[in-house]
Structure formats: structure tokens, C-alpha cells
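Model: You mentioned two targets. I'll fold them one after the other.
Researcher: Yes, keep them separate.
Model: Target one:
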Amino acid sequence: MSVSECVWGYRNGNFRTPHITCLETPPNSRSQINALIGFLIAVHITALLGIVFIYYVHRRRFRNGNFRTPHITCLETPPNSRSQINALIGFLIAVHITALLGIVFIYYVHRRRFRLVQSLSVRFQFSENLTSSRLIIALSTLQLMTFLMYGMAKVYLNSTHNPQKDDIPSYHSNMLAIYLISEYTLLLPLITMLFLMRAKQTRQSEIRSMIQVKASGAEGWANYSNQLQQQWNC
């Protein structure tokens, strides 16, 4: 079973009882959802085991590493481990780009299927999925840009920077770029709350605009045609 089947499984879902939350799933789609949850759990466990494996492989290298000059930050790595660190950074960037492309693909699939769905409950689920996808895409893009700056600065310090010959301002500027990861992690909850507040305001304004729209006469027909056109173009 593919991920696309899990995504499209909501399209023709029929609920036995009314539901007011998008966390509920149609009975005929629960097996696909359970399979998707199991797949995501397996991916998280595999990633965690990979991190633990990398830690134990490089623990001896870091413990016995010899630095050319004294350092006061744990972001520095010993010279005999820098090639592996550069390879790991490149691998993480490739995985992040692949995941971001996958999220964008799922977003456009939801957006295309949204106008084909007739059930009101399923349309609400697709609308919530689109909102969540926009949040994930925005955060993933910002995180990718931050990690790209971190990776370039880290590779520069590992490959070409010489603390004994290079100037101090160049070193400090690259160290500031490396600390962007910590700053982004600190600002992530604030960014998420601002996005959710904006999404809530947008939803409320759309509801108010729909309530105030006239539904009779020539103006009502014009409003209906406009909404129908927007639905087919979304």
C-alpha cells in the first residue's frame, strides 16, 4: 500500500455518526491510516537508531581528537572527523530536500482532490489538511534555508579555515551562521503560533464574508457564480 492510497482514502469515506473534528477517520479508511501510522513510527525508530549508531561510531574519534588550537565551543570538530561530518551534513540536506518535495507533492494532491469531493465532512478534512500542509511547507522551507547556511559555514570551517592564519571576523561570521540552528529552534514555537493565529483569522473572515453574501436576486446569482468559479479554480 502506498502513501497516496492513504491520502486519497478519505475521498469516499462515509461516517456512521456525525463528527465535528477532523481527527476522526471514516471506517473504510482506518486500515490505511493505521498502516500509515505504523510506517511513520518505523521511520522515526530507524532515524533514532541511525543517530545512535553515528554517535557510537564517532565517539572514539571525538574523544581522542586533537585540535590544532584551543576552542571554547562544542560546535568545533577535530580534524580527523571533519570529512565524516561534511558527508553527514550533505546527507541530511539531501534527506530534507526529498522530504520537502514529498510534502509539496502531497499538498498539490490534496488541492487537486479538494474540488472533486462532494461530501461536506470530507471537504472539511481536506481543508484542514491543506492548512496543515501550508504550515509544514513554510516551516520546512525556513528550516532548510537555515540548515543550508549552517552546512555551508560548517563545511567552510572544516575544510578551508585555518585558525592560525585566517582573520578573526571571518571566523566569527561563520560561527554566527552555525548558531542559526539554535536560534531557529528557539523561535519555532513563536512562528507556529503566529501562523495558526493568521490561519484562524483568515478562516473567520471567510465565514463572515459568506454569511453577509446575498443569495437572492441578480446579486445573489452573481455571488453564487463567483463562488462556483473560485471553487473550480482552487
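Model: Target two:
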Amino acid sequence: MRLEEPFVVDRWKAITIAVLFSTLYLFVGIGQSMAHASLVRSFPEANAVLDAAPRELRLWFSEAPEPRFSEVWLLDRTGRRVDGIGPLRPDAVDSMLLVVPLNPPPAGVYTASWRVTSMVDGHVTQGAFSFVIGRDQVPNSSLLPTAPLPGGAQTSGPTIPGTAIRWIAYLAMALLAGGFAFFPLALRPALSEAEYPRGDEQRRRTLSGRSPVDSRPPCPIPLFVALWLGWGLAVATTGMAAVIQAASGANVDLLTALGAPLQTLIGNTRYGAIFWTRLLILCLIFLLMPVDTPSAMRASASRRIWPIGLVLSAALLFTTSLSGHAAVGLSPSFIVVADWLHATAASIWVGGLVALFVTLRWARRADRISLRLVMPGLVRRFSRLAMVCVAIIAATGLYRAVVEIADWENLVDTAYGIALLIKLGILVPLLGLAAVNLLLVRRRVVEASGTDGPDVARQPWYRRLHKTVGGEILFASALLLATSALISLPPAREAFGPGLVLRGQGDDLRVVLVVNPGLPGINSFDVYLRDGARREITNATKVALIFDMVERDVGETEAVADNVGSGHYLAKGSYVSIAGTWRVQVLVRRQGRDDVRLVFPVVLAPHQGKPYERTQHTSSYSIRLSVTPGQVGENRLQVTLGDHQGLPIVGDTSIRLVLKPIDADVAAREIEARSIGRGRYDAEGVVFESAGNWQVTVAVANAGRTETARFTVVVP
């Protein structure tokens, strides 16, 4: 059965439109955030002491959590769950915020434990924070006890099933992208330009694509087998990855995940949108695949089939970039494109190596004279293709490393950095083999192709080429395995969380000091201790921080950090309350060793305001609220009142502003705004006493009727 040209054109148009719309639908959903949904802050705050029980818990994360696969529970001092917790819900305004209603619990020490799944990259994170209700319940320690957490690790790391499925998926996409690129860019041109001896018309027609029966150049059957294998593995891993993701997000076993968790995942989440897009692309690729006899395979070598397959394979790789670290960077749209180029180039290179390997075996067995004639052009063209791919991999890989690592010391101080070094260690011999093939074996192959005789396949350089290509494939497979594990780790830039990160070394001690948020006022001071071999120091008898301001003589203040485990020591308080440069000494005392003192300069900038402007609509009015400069201290609030057509509301109208911090249990404060004409109202000198989320209610009174609009103002 021949593939008719009009059908190819129509199918090409339909496939192009489908891919473009699917890609656009996913791309517009990229947001700005950090990889993994880490807890940024909470109400109540960690270690807070409350006079009255809160009626809800509020948790802000670094990226939007998926509420259907997230859970928050409250534990008492004994580790038992507290009843009376309502279902969590995402905030209507702030997608990073989860709200958990509470029946106010009695006085005591409580631990709020959380487990959330990132809506962006699907990673699962888990943690806890403690607070006290009632000042008479405060324990002696400066840090509250944390109840044991069910579920183990704080963040989801590499697992054997997840890593294996991801690795097979990468191999599958490499087989597809490499196979669809290899034939039109390397093999077909080499077959077409091969110069055969005069009179050898049968071989010329067979291998150059000029047969009077079928003008299309042939394609090795093993290459089609590789394409089918890649397609089958891609379909299988797409389904298995969804089951694993559902099990991880719902915290259930794989068998249980096949029910409601999987249905929820693929039906109502961002992951589900990517899942169905991948299946759509794989269905379109299926339409291109040969499903009949070898003659149908020859017909499938139409010039349009291969570019379409390559475009679809690249689109499949794009869906992978949308669900990884790239989708949650500081400039996600640009980073996603860089990650996609990196993955596409790597897939074409690795998959092209597999295609070259099976083509060499096929050619040696099928026609040894043709092997001698075709090989120079094939090796030359594939070498060019590989060099372009390696250049793209190097450029985009370096850029991604700079983004994810942030600080070169993170290469050896974090799990992500060490995993990246392992990946680079595998890449070095792979590039070495590629260089040998490019600089030495390629030249020898071209020289050997000039020899006479049909038994060219026994030439040592042909056998060596076959072996070195096989070696490249083995190293490339190991590289993809390392990448599969790497993608499950949080980027090194997040290893120590937000805030100021400072490093120092004294004697055999390596110290990392993290000051968070790094602004005047209350900060947490995290000290991480490692020895010269980068092992955690967990037995320090005392870790103290001594604070002294450089510009002013405010005297020294000392804080003793608590040992929270795994070489991590923590102190929290208002020890640096003035903007400027502070000298922070870290004193580490260990039994049987001399004390180690390291001095860190900590520069604290003043709070920077963030102007706020939003518009809300009531049944009668359009109300715009602007806050400048939007910082702790005095601010100016302006209200613009109009109708739904944008015309100003004039007449006997009064505006009241009601301010209340969302994160603190304090009374609301009312302010009367004065009219400055044409529907504009002004209130100067409005003080926000603390950073955090403030609810500003604008009450509009006119003709005996009052309408209100509520705004959430974030004060940094």
C-alpha cells in the first residue's frame, strides 16, 4: 500500500495545528517560582506563642501546591492527631497560600505537619513547624519540640521506581528523536550521493532511491524497529509515571493509586494536562509509524514523514521540560526553552548513535560493497550533526548549571551539586570517545573506503567504529540514568533556603551561615557544620553567634544556637534590628578540640517597599486601591471610585478603610479617607506596623447603602 501525497499533506497540516495548539496551551501556564514547593512562612509562625487559639492555619509556599494532593494535620505534644481540622483550600487570591480551618484547640504545644505536591513540577515536599497556645505552656527550650513526621523525608528525592521509569522514558524519546533525525539528515543524503561503479545499475537503483518502481530512498528495517521500540516505551512510561505520581501525591501504594488518585491526577491537575498532551503527541506519531510489510516501510520513507516525526518528537520533549526544574526557575519561559533545546539536542545525539549502530550492522550484512561506498558520506554527515548537538548541549548545559547551582561551592556542598559532578564525570569519557571517532576513526574509515574488494567489513577501522559507537551508547545511557536521578533533587540554589548565604572555613571546619530573610528585624540564623571531608558535625557542645554592628556602637549580643540535627544549628530572634553592616561571629566548641571562631560580614538593606494597586468590582462600583510605597511604616492609600463603565462617582459618598493584619490576632483599625475630587479619596500616614499580609477593606457609603471590597496587601 503506497502513501498518497495528498493524504500526507493533509495529515501534516492537521498534526502541525494540533502540536502548536497543545504546546501553546501548556506554555502559557508557566509561572515564576522555585523548584519544589517549600514552606516560605506560616500563620502561626514557627515557635510562635499565642494568647488565643487560631481559627485557621495559613501556609505560604514557594510555588503553588496542588490542593487535591496536599495534606495538613495538627499533632499534640504526644504526636497524636488533633480532631477538628477542616478540609484545606487554596486562597482565592494567592495561589501559593493554603488555608486550613480549625476548631480552636485548647492550650498546649502543637506541631503542624504538612505534605504538599507542587502544581508545577509534581515534586512532593514535607515538613512541620510548632507553636504554643498559652504562655504558661512554653517549654524551657528556645525551640519547640517537633513530633515525628509520618512519611519520612522532608523532600521527595530519587526513588528506584521513579528513576527507572524516567530513565526508560528518556531512552524512548532519544530513540524517537534520534531515529527521525538520523535518516533525513545523515543516511538518506549519504545513500543518494554514493558513487557506484559504472554498470552497477541494480545496486544504484536499490540504494540511491532512483528505482523506477519507488523513487523514495530506502530505510533500514532495524531503524524502524528502533522507532517502534521508542514509541512503545514512551507510551508505557507515560502511563506508569502517572501512576507513580498519583501514588506519591496521595501518599498511597501503587495499587491504590490506580483508582481515585489517578483519576483526579489526570483529570483535574496541571500534570493531567501535560499527560493528555503527551498521549496526543504519541498518537500522532503512531500515524507516521509503519504498520505493514517491508514494502510499506519503503513507502513510509516519504520526505515529509521524517520532518513531521522529528517535530513531534521535539514537542514530546517539550512536555518534559514543562514538568521539571526549568518550569519553576526565576525566568521560567526562557529557561524552559533552554532546557528543551538541551534535551532535544541530547536526544538527537544519543538516538542518532543508536541509529548509526543498527545501520552499521544492517549495512555490513546486507551489502558490503554498498557499505564501502556509503560509509564516507554517512560518517561525515553524522559527525556534523553530532557536533551541532554537542555545541547546543554544552551551551545550554552551562547556562542551566549556572542557574541551578547559583554558587560554585554548591557543587560540593549539596546533593544536587554532587550528582551534577557525577553526571559530568560520565560525560567526559563519552566526549572522549566521540572525539576519537571524529578525529581518528572517521579519517581511517574514509581512507579504508578507498580500498578495493568486497570484504570491506573486515577492515579493522570499520570494526573499531562499530565498537566505539557502541561504547558511546553505553556511556550515553549511563548519562541519562544520572539525569533521571538528578531531576528528583532540589536545585542547589535552594539547598539552604532563601536569605543570605555566607561560607567560611577554619581549621578542619566548614561553616555555612544562612540569615533569613536577611532584613532588619527578626531573622533565623541557620548554621551548617561540616568537617574537612564534608561530613556533618552533629556533636558540637556549643554553637554561639555574637552580633556587633560596624557603623554604630550598639554593643555585642550573643545567641546560642540549638542543635536540630544533621549538622544543623538554629537560632532565631531580633539580633540585627538596624539596617547596615553587622559583624557576626560564629563560635563552635567541640569536646577535645580548640574553639573555632569565624567572622561573617552581614549587610542588611532597609526594607524595600512594593507599591500595590488592584481593582475590584462590587454590584454598583469599580473600586481601585493603591498603596505607596507599600512598606513597613507610613504609607499613602488612595481609592478611586467609579461605575462599571469607568466614569467617576461623585456626590455625597464616604470611604472608610479597615486595616487588619491577616497573620496576627490583633484588632482591626478604621481610617476615614478624605475626598480629593472626581471620585478620588486619599489617606496619608497610614502605618503598617509589621511585614506580612494585610487585609484592607474599602467600605463605600452612599445614600444610606454600604458596599465593601476586600484587598490583600503584601507588605515586605
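Researcher: Noted. Anything on target two?
Model: The longest strand covers residues 692-702.
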